[in-house]
Design brief:
With 277 residues, the protein is α+β, with helices and mostly antiparallel strands. 43% of the residues lie in helices and 27% in strands.
C-alpha cells in the first residue's frame, strides 16, 4: 500500500491542509517531510502514527484486561503480600490501562485545533494493487468533549471503487451504519459484527473492532466470508511505518505489552521487598 494524499482539517496546529504524495499519479515509495521547527511536520507524521495506534485499541484493551486479571489472581494466591503492595500493583496496571492505547478517543484527545469548534477530519488517500481508495475519520465536539462522528472506507468492490462501509454517531452515542452487501457473506458473521458495532464503535474504530475479530477467528473462515479487498486494506494498514526524531514504529504496540507486563511485575516485586522491609 502507498498513501497518495493526506487531508487534515482542524488537526493539531493545521487548519486545512492537503499533502500530495504522488509522483506522476503514482504514490512515492518514500516520503520525507522537512521544514522549520514549528511548521507542522510532526503533526502530519502524528496523523499516520495515530492511525497506526487506532487499529489496535481493542486488542490492547483486552491484553491489559488479561494482565489485570493475572495480577488479581496472583494476589489472591499470595497471602504474604501486604494490602499496600496489592494496591500499588493494581494502580500501576490500571494507570497504563487508561492510557491512550486502549481508546480511539484517547489517541485523538489532544489533536483538536485549539479554539476551533468545527469538526476535526483526517482523510487518508491510498493506492493498493493499482486501485485508489480512502479512509476517513471525523471527530466533532459537544460541550467541549470530542466524539467520533464518522468513519468511512472507500475502496475497490469487485471491479470498481465504492463505499465498503460508513458508520456515523452523534453526541448521545446513537449509531447508524451502512455496509457494502459484499463485505460480509455470512448471516452469523453479520450478526456478530452488528453487535460489535453497537457495543464498541466510538470508543474503537471499525478497523480496530474487525482487526480483533480477525485475530480471534479461523483464517479460512474470515477469507471465505469477508470481502477480499477489505482484508487487503486492513492487512496493509497494519504495516504503516513512520519515523520522527522522537518515535518510530509499525503498529507494534500490542507486541510490546507482554514485555511491559514482565517489566511491571519485576518493578512491583522490587517495591514489595522494600515495603516488607
Amino acid at each position: 500500500m502507498m498513501f497518495t494524499e493526506i487531508e487534515l482539517k482542524n488537526y493539531m496546529s493545521l487548519k486545512n491542509i492537503k499533502l500530495d504524495m504522488k509522483q506522476k499519479n503514482d504514490a512515492k515509495s518514500i516520503v520525507a517531510i522537512y521544514g522549520e521547527n514549528g511548521s507542522g511536520k510532526s503533526n502530519v507524521v502524528s496523523a499516520f502514527m495515530n492511525l497506526s495506534l487506532s487499529i489496535n485499541t481493542l486488542k490492547s484493551q483486552k491484553i491489559f484486561n488479561k494482565m489485570e486479571s493475572n495480577i488479581l489472581s496472583d494476589d489472591e494466591n499470595d497471602n504474604n503480600m501486604s494490602d499496600d503492595a496489592k494496591k500499588m500493583k493494581l494502580d500501576a496496571i490500571r494507570s497504563i490501562q487508561n492510557s491512550q492505547y486502549t481508546s480511539l478517543l484517547r489517541i485523538f484527545q489532544n489533536t483538536y485545533l485549539f479554539g476551533e469548534h468545527g469538526p476535526t477530519e483526517l482523510k487518508f488517500n491510498f493506492k493498493i494493487d493499482g486501485h485508489a481508495g480512502y479512509y476517513k475519520l471525523v471527530f466533532e465536539k459537544s460541550n467541549g468533549k470530542a466524539y467520533l462522528a464518522t468513519e468511512e472506507l472507500n475502496y475497490v468492490i469487485k471491479k470498481s471503487s465504492g463505499m465498503i462501509y460508513i458508520i456515523t454517531g452523534d453526541k448521545d452515542g446513537n449509531i447508524s451504519y451502512k455496509l457494502s452487501p459484499q463485505l460480509l457473506k455470512n448471516k452469523e458473521l453479520f450478526a456478530s459484527i452488528d453487535d460489535s458495532i453497537y457495543r464498541l464503535w466510538g470508543k474503537h474504530s471499525f478497523l480496530s473492532i474487525f482487526n480483533e475479530f480477525q485475530n480471534e477467528n479461523n483464517n479460512k473462515y474470515i477469507e471465505d466470508n469477508v470481502l477480499a479487498s477489505f482484508l487487503t486494506v486492513i492487512s496493509d494498514f497494519r504495516q504503516i511505518s513512520f519515523k520522527t526524531d522522537g518515535a518510530s514504529g509499525m503498529s507494534q504496540f500490542p507486541k510490546l505489552l507482554p514485555d511491559l507486563y514482565r517489566e511491571l511485575s519485576i518493578m512491583m516485586d522490587q517495591k514489595n521487598v522494600l515495603l516488607e522491609q
